[in-house]
Write a structure and sequence with these properties.
This protein is mainly beta. The chain has one domain (6-108): Jelly Rolls, CATH 2.60.120. It is 0% helix and 54% strand. It contains no helices and ten strands. It has strands spanning 10-13, 18-23, 34-39, 49-50, 54-67, 70-75, 79-82, 88-102, 108-111, 114-120. Strands 1, 2, 3, 5, 6, 7 and 8 form a seven-stranded antiparallel beta sheet that branches. A three-stranded antiparallel beta sheet has the order 4-9-10, with no helix packed on it. The radius of gyration is 14 Å and the shape is globular.
Length: 125
Protein backbone atom coordinates (compact mmCIF):
# COMPACT_ATOMS: atom_id res chain seq x y z
CA UNK A 1 0.00 0.00 0.00
CA UNK A 2 1.17 3.55 -0.78
CA UNK A 3 -0.42 6.68 0.68
CA UNK A 4 0.29 10.07 -0.87
CA UNK A 5 -0.22 12.58 1.93
CA UNK A 6 -1.60 16.04 1.22
CA UNK A 7 1.81 17.41 2.17
CA UNK A 8 3.33 15.48 -0.77
CA UNK A 9 1.17 17.04 -3.50
CA UNK A 10 2.80 19.34 -6.04
CA UNK A 11 1.25 22.50 -7.45
CA UNK A 12 2.03 23.70 -10.97
CA UNK A 13 0.61 27.04 -12.07
CA UNK A 14 0.13 27.98 -15.73
CA UNK A 15 -1.53 31.09 -17.16
CA UNK A 16 -4.75 29.08 -17.54
CA UNK A 17 -4.98 26.99 -14.35
CA UNK A 18 -3.34 25.46 -11.30
CA UNK A 19 -2.68 21.73 -11.41
CA UNK A 20 -2.18 19.84 -8.16
CA UNK A 21 -0.55 16.44 -8.53
CA UNK A 22 -2.45 14.01 -6.30
CA UNK A 23 -0.66 10.82 -7.35
CA UNK A 24 1.99 10.26 -10.00
CA UNK A 25 4.78 7.89 -10.99
CA UNK A 26 7.31 9.95 -9.00
CA UNK A 27 5.06 9.49 -5.96
CA UNK A 28 4.81 5.72 -6.42
CA UNK A 29 1.56 5.71 -8.42
CA UNK A 30 2.92 4.44 -11.73
CA UNK A 31 1.40 4.11 -14.23
CA UNK A 32 -1.67 6.14 -13.19
CA UNK A 33 -1.14 9.87 -12.58
CA UNK A 34 -4.11 11.76 -11.13
CA UNK A 35 -4.27 15.52 -10.66
CA UNK A 36 -6.72 18.32 -9.82
CA UNK A 37 -7.23 21.27 -12.17
CA UNK A 38 -8.51 24.57 -10.80
CA UNK A 39 -9.26 27.27 -13.36
CA UNK A 40 -10.67 30.70 -12.62
CA UNK A 41 -13.33 32.45 -14.65
CA UNK A 42 -11.90 34.66 -17.37
CA UNK A 43 -9.07 32.29 -18.28
CA UNK A 44 -8.89 29.83 -21.15
CA UNK A 45 -6.45 27.09 -21.86
CA UNK A 46 -4.64 27.02 -25.19
CA UNK A 47 -5.79 24.81 -28.02
CA UNK A 48 -3.53 21.78 -27.56
CA UNK A 49 -3.20 18.01 -27.99
CA UNK A 50 -2.32 15.19 -25.61
CA UNK A 51 -0.92 11.96 -27.06
CA UNK A 52 -2.98 9.73 -24.72
CA UNK A 53 -6.57 9.35 -23.59
CA UNK A 54 -7.58 11.42 -20.56
CA UNK A 55 -10.58 11.28 -18.24
CA UNK A 56 -11.84 14.58 -16.76
CA UNK A 57 -14.44 14.67 -13.96
CA UNK A 58 -15.74 18.09 -12.94
CA UNK A 59 -16.12 18.42 -9.19
CA UNK A 60 -17.17 22.09 -9.10
CA UNK A 61 -18.24 24.86 -11.48
CA UNK A 62 -18.77 24.71 -15.23
CA UNK A 63 -16.51 24.58 -18.28
CA UNK A 64 -16.93 24.93 -22.03
CA UNK A 65 -15.02 22.21 -23.88
CA UNK A 66 -13.87 22.21 -27.48
CA UNK A 67 -12.54 18.77 -28.41
CA UNK A 68 -12.31 16.78 -31.60
CA UNK A 69 -14.23 19.37 -33.63
CA UNK A 70 -17.16 19.41 -31.20
CA UNK A 71 -18.04 21.68 -28.30
CA UNK A 72 -20.13 21.25 -25.18
CA UNK A 73 -20.60 22.54 -21.66
CA UNK A 74 -19.95 20.42 -18.57
CA UNK A 75 -21.08 20.93 -14.99
CA UNK A 76 -20.04 19.45 -11.64
CA UNK A 77 -20.54 15.68 -11.72
CA UNK A 78 -20.03 15.33 -15.49
CA UNK A 79 -17.17 13.22 -16.85
CA UNK A 80 -15.47 13.71 -20.22
CA UNK A 81 -13.22 11.20 -21.97
CA UNK A 82 -10.91 12.93 -24.46
CA UNK A 83 -9.26 10.53 -26.89
CA UNK A 84 -5.56 10.78 -27.67
CA UNK A 85 -4.61 13.27 -30.34
CA UNK A 86 -7.82 15.34 -30.28
CA UNK A 87 -7.33 19.09 -30.25
CA UNK A 88 -8.87 20.45 -27.08
CA UNK A 89 -9.49 23.71 -25.22
CA UNK A 90 -11.10 24.25 -21.81
CA UNK A 91 -12.76 27.60 -21.05
CA UNK A 92 -14.07 28.02 -17.48
CA UNK A 93 -17.63 29.17 -16.87
CA UNK A 94 -18.49 32.28 -14.82
CA UNK A 95 -17.53 30.63 -11.52
CA UNK A 96 -14.50 28.77 -12.85
CA UNK A 97 -14.15 25.02 -12.45
CA UNK A 98 -12.38 22.27 -10.59
CA UNK A 99 -11.78 18.84 -12.12
CA UNK A 100 -9.95 15.64 -11.28
CA UNK A 101 -8.06 14.27 -14.27
CA UNK A 102 -6.38 10.94 -14.99
CA UNK A 103 -4.38 9.54 -17.87
CA UNK A 104 -1.50 7.15 -18.44
CA UNK A 105 2.03 7.86 -17.29
CA UNK A 106 4.32 9.28 -19.95
CA UNK A 107 1.69 11.25 -21.84
CA UNK A 108 2.95 14.34 -23.63
CA UNK A 109 1.42 17.59 -24.90
CA UNK A 110 1.85 19.52 -28.13
CA UNK A 111 0.34 22.41 -30.04
CA UNK A 112 -1.66 21.92 -33.28
CA UNK A 113 0.83 23.98 -35.31
CA UNK A 114 3.70 21.69 -34.26
CA UNK A 115 2.26 18.31 -33.20
CA UNK A 116 5.64 16.58 -33.36
CA UNK A 117 7.18 18.97 -30.79
CA UNK A 118 5.95 17.24 -27.64
CA UNK A 119 6.61 18.30 -24.06
CA UNK A 120 6.26 16.37 -20.82
CA UNK A 121 3.29 17.13 -18.59
CA UNK A 122 4.99 18.11 -15.32
CA UNK A 123 1.98 17.44 -13.07
CA UNK A 124 1.61 13.90 -14.42
CA UNK A 125 5.26 12.90 -13.90
Amino acid sequence: MRIVRSTETRRTATPAAVMTTLASPTQGAAPFPVWRVEAAAGTAGPLHLIDADQVWTLTAGTVHIEAGGESTDLAAGDTLIVPAGEERRFTPGPEGFTAVVAGPAGMRASMPASPDEKVDIAWAA
